[in-house]
Amino acid sequence: MTKSKMTYGNTEATGSRIGPILAVFQPLLSCSVGRWAPLPLRLIVGYGFAAHGFAKLFRGGDNFTGILHAMGLPMPHVFAWLTIVTEIVGGICVLLGALLPIVSIPMAIVLLVAIFTVHLPYGFSSIKLQAITPDGAHFGQPGYETDLLYLAGLAVLVLGGSGPFAIDNWLLRRLAAASGAVSGVPGKADLDA
């Protein structure tokens, strides 16, 4: 009995030290702060896609077409421009939180094609340090890790919502107001006025 009381007493003492620490983080875990979580995800996923699309565009669409042709993909010219447009338009839409459930489909297709045609043979890791020389670090071919991170980011944004400052939120409010006006039932916007 005495031993179990000591264990309980130690747990209680430990719990009393952890309680104030958890209390500091409680505001960060609350729903009001948690609703901001999609914003940094939107910024990095959207910027990443747009940056890759603009890089392909500024190097010239024919340059990317040549890469796709060398890989043996059918209709390389068509797929090069579809990829560039998907990355730029999709990236901008993700940044703005606009039409995420729709634009995420072609974006996911681009990522899956990249995984299975380029990155899969090189394994999981995207960073493969091979050597450090006086000229700097030298890296091997990137694996599919980054593509999976982008896919996960898109999935979270589609399933969890775009978060604050998203055009999707404005569109949903407009649709709700319009459907309420059509059915004769006041929408939330009508009730707030």
Major sheet details: 2 strands, antiparallel
Number of strands: 2
How far apart the termini lie comes to 66 Å
- Overall pLDDT metric: 86
Task: Throw out a few tags for this protein.
193 residues, mainly alpha, two-stranded antiparallel ribbon, 74% helix, 5% strand, flat, disordered N terminus
Characterise the protein shown here.
By secondary structure, this protein is mostly helical. Helices cover about 75% and strands about 5% of the residues. Strands 1-2 form a two-stranded antiparallel ribbon. Helix 3 crosses helix 7.
In short:
The protein has 193 residues and is mainly α.
Walk me through the topology:
Elements: H1 2-29, H2 31-34, H3 38-59, H4 61-70, H5 76-96, H6 100-119, E1 129-133, E2 136-139, H7 145-160, H8 167-183, H9 188-192
Antiparallel strand pairs: 1-2
Helix pairs in contact: 3-4, 3-5, 3-7, 4-5, 5-6, 6-7
